[in-house]
Amino acid sequence: MELLDAAPLRHAMSPSMIVAGVCAIPFACAPLQVARCFNKAAAPASSALEKVYPNEYKSIAFAIFPKNLIITAVRCMALSLAPVVEQYLKALDEAERNDDGQDGNVFPPLPNLKPATVKTAYSILRMTTVMTTRRIMERLLSLGCSERMMWKLMKDIPKSAQRKASNPLLESSRAVSRGCRMARTAVRGYAVVVGADFVVNQCILTTKLVTEVNKLSASTTLSAEAKKAEGRKKWNWLFRQTVYSTSKAIGSLTFLSLACGIVVLIRPKNSPTWAYWITFAGMSIGDLVGDHIVTTCLEDWANAQ
């Protein structure tokens, strides 16, 4: 009896039967695959009516609107004039300490504001160009990306944190999972901003390089070998500056996302307003920390001649 039962089993476990069974798996699963394809094809038709992504594309001239232009001008003016004012206050403090009472005028001469004014104008032009480039990049990305992806790329990160703070479904999730989701949201929402700044910076560097190379070509005091050596130095400078700019962009995104992920872990419960401002502060601090670390490590190497 055992021999009769074992014979079909040995026949079923033969190599030919195993190969035949493996080859028959796709044909056996074909009806399931067809049904799954029909389900996937029918799903977007119903979900397209249910899920709508409200992407609000701002105008390309958004940066030169009066309100935004005034905010940009005040910010650039404060950043450019702050070192000048600080230096003047230090000089005033030193003059007061060295005053012996004989000279009635203890005020030092006013500083020259022309370099600070030129720097302010340059900063305003650069920030306006960056914001305009960002809007153009959003338009270009919308041609090849889905509405859902554009919704993620254009998401306001502090508002997203505020919405997640008021979502009761996220309270039961783990803290690490919440932090990772917020860090991922920060990277996607800030990528276009960092990309626009990188593009503008590379255009400025390339323009400087072309100008210097044209000056070298038009020079009559240098030999051909000297021109080639100077040209190689200029190209090496552009390479170092490109690595420096890329490192700053990566560092900014990395530390900004880490800061957002950490801030989400310590956000106060049932306080969406605090979640907004704490996330905004975390983004600013993370951006500054990443920029400062990369600048400290690579600035001297990038600017070396």
- Give the total of domains: 2
Q: Helix fraction? A: over 70%
What is the succession of H and E elements?
Answer: HHHHHHHHH
Number of strand elements:
0
Relative strand content: under 5%
Mean pLDDT: 76
The end-to-end span amounts to 92 Å
Overall, the morphology is globular
Name the poorly predicted regions. 1-49
Secondary-structure-derived class: mainly alpha
- Helix count, DSSP H or I runs of 4 or more residues: 9
- Sheet of most strands: none
Radius of gyration: 31 Å
Account of the protein in words:
The protein contains nine helices and no strands. By secondary structure, it is mainly alpha-helical. The chain has two domains: 61-93 and 110-144; 146-305. α6 (157-165) runs antiparallel to α9 and α7 runs antiparallel to α8 (224-265). The longest helix is centred in the middle third of the chain and has 44 residues, at 175-218. Residues 1-49 have low confidence and may be disordered.
Annotation keywords:
mainly alpha; 9 helices; 305 residues; single chain; 80% helix; disordered N terminus; 2 domains
List the helices and strands and how they pair.
Blueprint: H1 2-12, H2 15-50, H3 66-97, H4 114-144, H5 147-153, H6 157-165, H7 175-218, H8 224-265, H9 272-302
Helix pairs in contact: 3-4, 4-7, 6-9, 7-8, 8-9
